[in-house]
Structure formats: C-alpha cells, structure tokens
Design goal:
By secondary structure, this protein is α+β, with helices and mostly antiparallel strands. The chain has two domains: 87 residues, Double Stranded RNA Binding Domain (2-Layer Sandwich), CATH 3.30.160; 118 residues, DNA polymerase, domain 1 (Orthogonal Bundle). The chain is 40% helix and 17% strand. Strands 1-2-3-4-5 form a five-stranded mixed β-sheet, with helices on one face. Helix 3 packs antiparallel against helix 4 and helix 3 crosses helix 6. 20% of the residues are buried. About 4% of the residues have low confidence.
C-alpha cells in the first residue's frame, strides 16, 4: 500500500490557512524526485500542484486541483493533502511510461499482468534470447493465478504461498497439435529427486515474477518492492541428488 507522507503544515486546512500567501508553492517531497506543492492564495483557498525532477536542475510541473480549504473534498477537483499525493503519484506513473515510450497508462490499477506485459516488452527491446520460454512461463504459471492482482496489494505471504504451491502442483506437458498443457501426474513427495526438480522449476518461475516486479519498481510504476523482496527461493535444488 502506498505510504501517505505527513506534514503538519499541509495536512489540515487550519494549518494551511495559517501559511502566508505567496506565488511560490510550499513543496513537500513524497518520493525521490517527486514533490507535492501547496500554493497559498491571498483570497480564497489554495491549490495543489506537483513537480517531478527531469534532470539538470529542471522540473516538470502540473496543477492537480483545488485544496479543501473552504469546501469538502470530492477526490476529483477538490483534494485533501492525501488525495493530492495519490494524484501526484498517478501523474508521475503516466509521465514515466510516456518517457519510456510505453503505451498510455491503463485504466484502473496497475496489475501483475500489466507488470508482466511491460517486462516482456522491455525484455524484447533489450534483445532477450529466450522470449519463447519467458512467454510460456508467463502464460502457464503467472497470468492464470496472479495476473489480475494489483501489484500494490501483493503481500509476501501471497507470493510465498503461490511459490510453494508450484513445487507440489501436478506436472504439465505439451500435447496435441495445439500444444495445449494438461496435468499428467501428481507430485510424489517420497521421490527426493522429483521434489528437487519441482522446487528448481518453482524457483525459475519465481525469478520471472520477481524480474517483472523489479522492473516495475525500477521504473517507479509501484511504490515499494518489500513484498517480493521478502520471498526467498528454495535452497540447494539446482544440483541433482547424489546416489
């Protein structure tokens, strides 16, 4: 969940109305390179604005709306300090995507499916050598279970439970002209080498998920990477058992 930054001078209407009117906004940093500003007008209530650092001492700015100094907030044109932060981050995400040459920001929340799509596009642009396998893993193991989830709402437990379930799921093989996948046999917990292989496979799938989520975090499309950073792969599963 996105953290709301606190500021005793800006978070209440009473505090804001005690500020001196001026043209230059009172800026508050909410992310590295991203600031929310409050411009106190001489007459009437103030307004919210946002700026992001674009390099060499330059900033790009945008008006967000009216502060809820004299009217109750509606979340659209009249905003609280917290709502102004949310609007600033949404604008920042859209600007980041535009700077990267990605498609216009999708409607609705940023999902795992969106992160996987962005990562696949970046992987292709960088000349990735195993695109077919990447797409196979995404289509078979990631999109069906996690694709619709919001990245901001992912928890370490949710990812860890999914990762562990991969190590006990029935084996999948490609069959038929359409190369569709189907289950062929259940996982045998008594077969140590089979357990190792399934856990190794689960780790490779987890690596793809983490790569996509890390890409989203690196491009500042999500606010935190703590959920997946706390999920660890299975250990000692990359070498076959010695008989």
């Amino acid at each position: 969940m996105t953290r709301t930054v606190r500021d005793s001078s800006l978070e209440t209407r009473a505090a804001r109305l005690r500020l001196s009117p001026r043209v230059k906004p009172f800026w508050r940093i909410i992310e590295p390179g991203l600031h929310v500003g409050y411009r106190r007008r001489r007459h009437g209530g103030g307004t919210w604005t946002v700026r992001r650092f674009v390099g060499t001492g330059r900033y790009s700015e945008k008006s967000l709306g009216v502060a809820d100094d004299l009217q109750n907030a509606d979340g659209v044109t009249i905003l609280t300090f917290s709502q102004a932060q949310d609007a600033a981050r949404e604008w920042w995400k859209a600007e980041q995507r535009r700077a990267l040459g990605l498609e216009e920001d999708r409607r609705g929340p940023y999902t795992v499916a969106g992160a996987l799509e962005d990562y696949t596009r970046d992987y292709t642009r960088r000349g990735g050598k195993d695109l077919t396998n990447l797409r196979s893993i995404i289509d078979a193991h990631l999109l069906p279970v996690l694709g619709c989830l919001e990245v901001e709402k992912l928890t370490a437990k949710r990812i860890r439970d999914w990762h562990h379930s991969l190590s006990t799921a029935p084996k999948l093989v490609r069959t038929g002209a359409a190369a569709r996948q189907r289950n062929v046999k259940a996982h045998l917990s008594s077969d140590a080498d089979a357990v190792r292989r399934r856990r190794s496979r689960a780790n490779r799938i987890l690596t793809v998920l983490k790569a996509a989520l890390n890409h989203a975090f690196a491009e500042r499309l999500v606010a935190s990477d703590q959920a997946w950073r706390r999920v660890q792969p299975f250990r000692n599963v990359d070498r076959p058992s010695v008989r």
